[in-house]
Amino acid sequence: MLARVYWETFVTRRDLVRYLAMLIVAYGQRALPLAERSYCGGSGLTVLKDLTGQTGEPAASAAERSALVFPDPTLAYHGYSLHDLTVDGCTAHVVRPKDSLPARPWVWRTMFWDAFPGVDVALLEAGFHVAFIDVGNTFGCPDAMKHFDAFYANMRLCGLSAKPALEGLSRGGLYAYRWAYANTDKVGCIYGDAPVCDMKSWPGGKGNGSGSPEDWKEAIKDYHFADEKEMLRFKGNPIDILEPIAAAHIPIIHVCGDADTVVPEDENTDIVRVRYIALGGDFALIVKQGCGHHPHGLADPSHVVNFIMAHCAEGEAAKKALASSPKPGSILELATGHW
């Protein structure tokens, strides 16, 4: 039985993250307050003390941990401090709000860092952290999901909340849904913006969408499938894996354009919506009339921001946001010029 662990030799970032992730599984959240020093994504010496929690007292207060866990900011991000990290061999970013909400809620952008960032910036203003790990253009494949697991463990060690909002922009929807499917107890809500929900639609182009032949080949390779036939038989697309997500009562909101010819609404979002509601899940939809795949986002992101805050913040902030959040089953149609 481990009573005390001293880690006084140099380890790689990947080894450190994986070891700490195992400790979290073994000891639960008790490991979090007992890390005397945990630099997110950093390297060097780390000492973990009394990991069994037998003393019953945290080694440091939340305020003290907050001052320790992030390396110095390297860049400015829309007026906020951005921290560059390396997690599990991947480049990652965390942006800190000027005044964090209680429990340190966060939105996890799964793809396309800083593209159409209106929701992210509004959430920073509201007190959310924004985080991202770059696993490359890998379509939510199993190898990418392993990096996501390490990143989540790292963010928890940094003191961020247990249930982030997953933000899936375009093909980022594959990452958001596939990670939620395997981690239903670790997700506060899902926000999809013109999200890919079936790879047969994009990049496969097997329906009415334009598809992307090169990305289709790359996806088959990244999933380690032998050929296209195996990909076409694959039952791990977001449209196929909704049941456990619904059973976990994870609310979902999508924003999409009804003129999208790249990721057509009827082949992606509409299928998810119908199936998710049939499973008893909460699903809200915002449709941009006359909009194609671009631009993503909304001129006024308040509907999405309130939805995320209602399900990922706590206390009065969540209660206030819920009053203005899109309701389950609702469809908000925005006319051209109003999105």
Descriptive labels:
11 helices; 2 domains; ten-stranded mixed beta sheet; 339 residues; disordered N terminus; single chain; alpha/beta; 33% helix; Rossmann fold; 10 strands
Sequence stretches where pLDDT stays below 50 over 5 or more residues: 1-19, 21-39, 42-68
| Strands in their spatial order, largest beta sheet | 1-2-3-5-4-6-7-8-9-10
What is the average per-residue confidence, as pLDDT, rounded to a whole number?
Answer: 84
Helix content class: 25-40%
> What is the CATH homology-level superfamily of the largest domain?
Alpha/Beta hydrolase fold, catalytic domain
Structural class: alpha/beta
Q: What is the CATH architecture term of the largest domain?
A: 3-Layer(aba) Sandwich
Label the overall shape. Answer: globular
Please report the first level of CATH classification, the CATH class of the largest domain: Alpha Beta
Number of separate domains: 2
Word description of this protein:
This protein has 339 residues and is α/β, with parallel strands linked by helices. The protein folds into two domains: 13-67, no CATH class; 70-334, Rossmann fold (3-Layer(aba) Sandwich). The chain is built from eleven helices and ten strands. It has a ten-stranded mixed beta sheet with strand order 1-2-3-5-4-6-7-8-9-10, with helices on both faces. Helix 10 crosses helix 11.
What topology does this entry show?
Elements: H1 13-27, H2 62-68, E1 75-77, E2 80-87, E3 90-96, E4 106-109, H3 118-126, E5 129-133, H4 142-157, E6 165-169, H5 172-182, E7 189-193, H6 213-222, H7 228-233, H8 242-247, E8 252-257, H9 269-278, E9 283-288, H10 302-312, H11 315-324, E10 331-334
Parallel strand pairs: 4-5, 4-6, 6-7, 7-8, 8-9, 9-10
Antiparallel strand pairs: 1-2, 2-3, 3-5
Helix pairs in contact: 1-4, 3-10, 10-11
